[in-house]
């Protein structure tokens, strides 16, 4: 089945869709920083935080749509001068990850301000073959906001 993947702003997605997505325990399993219960206020704070990144950096996280339907969020966030890439999909749409990541990384390769991309991968993620196929190299384990992640880097230039 063909997919029509587009990127939109998170503020364009009905908050209830984000709430349903982020409340799914299969999503929380791979998000060690999400140590709170998602509710309408949490969604509002989350979207405001992501919009603030757009205002500050001119780039941030998108909502990913397939045929106009919300399937997840992710994109690039400036973390101390490094553009970290994240991808958080609805569990029933995990299979779209490679297609969405390719489109986002193609964007990064055209964006002069992104000479490389980092990936912070939680230890719960075991299948890292996609990162290796992309050419990302393992830099080591890092602590971010009190949680351990495996850090990878992919040059885009």
Description:
- It is a single chain.
- The chain has 157 residues and is α+β, with helices and mostly antiparallel strands.
- It has a domain at 5-113: Aminopeptidase.
- It has helices spanning 15-22, 25-28, 40-57, 97-110, 129-134, and strands at residues 5-9, 61-66, 69-79, 82-89, 116-121, 137-144, 147-155.
- Strands 1-2-3-4-5-7-6 form a 7-stranded mixed beta sheet, with helices on both faces.
- Helix 4 (97-110) links the parallel strand 4 and strand 5.
- Helix 1 crosses helix 3 (40-57).
Number of separate strands: 7
Spatial strand order of the main sheet? 1-2-3-4-5-7-6
Count of separate DSSP helical elements: 5
Give the N-to-C terminal Cα separation: 33 Å
Top CATH class of the domain at 5-113: Alpha Beta
How is the quaternary structure best described? Answer: single chain
N to C succession of SSEs: EHHHEEEHEHEE
Strand count, sense and barrel status of the largest sheet are: 7 strands, mixed
Write the topology of this structure.
Elements: E1 5-9, H1 15-22, H2 25-28, H3 40-57, E2 61-66, E3 69-79, E4 82-89, H4 97-110, E5 116-121, H5 129-134, E6 137-144, E7 147-155
Parallel strand pairs: 4-5
Antiparallel strand pairs: 1-2, 2-3, 3-4, 5-7, 6-7
Overview features:
single chain, 157 residues, alpha+beta, Aminopeptidase, 5 helices, 7 strands, globular
